Amino acid sequence: MNNLFQGIPADLPQELMEDLLVHRGLRLQRILSRGHADPPGQWQQQDQDEWVLLIQGEAELEYREPSRKQRLASGDWIFIPAGEAHRVAWTPPDRDTLWLALHWDAPT
Prior knowledge:
The chain is mostly beta strands. It has a single domain, classed as Jelly Rolls. 0% of the residues lie in helices and 51% in strands. It is built from no helices and eight strands. A five-stranded antiparallel sheet has the order 1-2-8-3-6, with no helix packed on it. A three-stranded antiparallel sheet has the order 5-4-7, with no helix packed on it. The N and C termini lie far apart (35 Å).
């Protein structure tokens, strides 16, 4: 048995991404942010669909097309289709933001 809230480092100079499960085309990641964000103008654009659950904390996501921002709080989840350009615009620097991200192959 494992616990999402264990093994969180006191010092977190970079966002922490850990694979919790990789199996049959699925990848489940634990992501830990503490004031981390993607640099302005740097977009993530993945080849796989992604479902994200914000377990703890807050975050703001930004999307390129159409241009918009989305604020997330604990318990919020979103679906990001493969190919959609997005970025983490903000997470609070004074507390942990804990995410679960599920990736899978996009349908053809």
